Amino acid sequence: MKEDNDVSRIFLLNPDPRLLDEAHRAGVQVRSARVEAHDESVLRPLLKEAAAAGLFVNPARALRLLADPDAVQRLVRDNRLSPDAGAVSGAPRLTVETLSVHGMHQTVGITARMPYGLLHPAPLTEDTAAEVRAVVTALLDLTGYQYGPAHTGVTLTRQGPVITGCRAGLADEPVPELLKVAGGFDLAAGAVRVLAGKLVEAARPCRFAAAAELSRPWRLGAGEVGTVPDVRVVSTSGSRGPGHFVVHADSPEGAAQRVTSLSALVAGEAS
């Protein structure tokens, strides 16, 4: 059992700047290291030292597996976590965000890839969502992952969910922004919390949030886009990818309509 004063300290391997920023904002002390995650012999002494200092750390094997896409696929195949669905081109694709603490994995968001961009939450039946959560949780259990965020790709087929990839860490934007707009859940804050050994309570989405890329040339500037009704986030292109905007709506259909209308307004596309 960790002492109470240890919960304000976390260990980050190859730290994401967003987690560093959130830890600083929350007053959480960070111990970090930058090493090659594919080499367990390099990871083990660092993790052992951090654990001896009272920090929560993952097993070296888990970090090595999740840093290797081929190893993830072998684990999925060898343990029959996904059906042999053959070609899955054109099948619905999802991204699944989880937060793990003490080896317990909580799904905090399932996002759908749409023709226009991304939609959160993914419009799934309860049974399908449960199947997706179960297969992702089973994979994380097999890796031995204990603490922190993970980002998993899943394709839906008639035979069931197929895992297409999984890695430790936060999803790239705009997925975290979608979770915040749809239900008020801060993915980075939740990640810092579980890395400190604390449980999180995910907010249930109360609306839909959709995101689409802002492709140049623009008719409107980013500042002008942000003043359009129903637009909640505008981000210009940067190191983490192209620019995008996020809107909210009461239904998937409403979200698609707003994205289409805004894309036409911003870029002058035909609606």
From TrEMBL:
This is ATP-grasp domain-containing protein.
